[in-house]
Design goal:
By secondary structure, the chain is mainly α. The protein is built from 3 helices and 2 strands.
């Protein structure tokens, strides 16, 4: 993690007399990389750090969404295969799934009771 406060280019820094502690956006925090190692003092400009964090979270959210869509597509294929197998073997798949749900609910009730 690197500093996001850039004194040389900040107009607000100049207006406030060149003292970072007077800036309402200035923030210092300690960062420890990967849970081990030496802590590092990070000097941040809050609006810049916020934008960087939003970009990072957005990228992670896109990754999660992609994986979720892949799982959904795989689930559809599993359902199709199960339905075909059920028809070919003469099993009423809907009745089987319904009975399994009933048994799971009964197990939950007895576990809590």
């Amino acid at each position: 993690m690197e500093n996001t406060c850039n004194y040389e280019e900040c107009k607000l820094f100049e207006l406030l007399g060149g003292n970072p502690e007077q800036c309402p956006n200035y923030q210092e925090s300690w960062w420890q990389p990967d849970g081990n190692g030496q802590p590092v003092l990070v000097k941040d400009c809050s609006p810049r750090r916020t934008l960087l964090m939003i970009q990072s979270l957005y990228a992670r959210l896109e990754g999660v969404q992609k994986v979720q869509e892949q799982q959904r597509n795989e689930n559809v294929w599993v359902q199709v295969v199960a339905e075909v197998l059920g028809k070919n073997s003469g099993i009423d798949l809907e009745a089987f799934v319904q009975r399994r749900k009933e048994l799971q609910i009964a197990e939950l009730i007895t576990a809590k009771g």
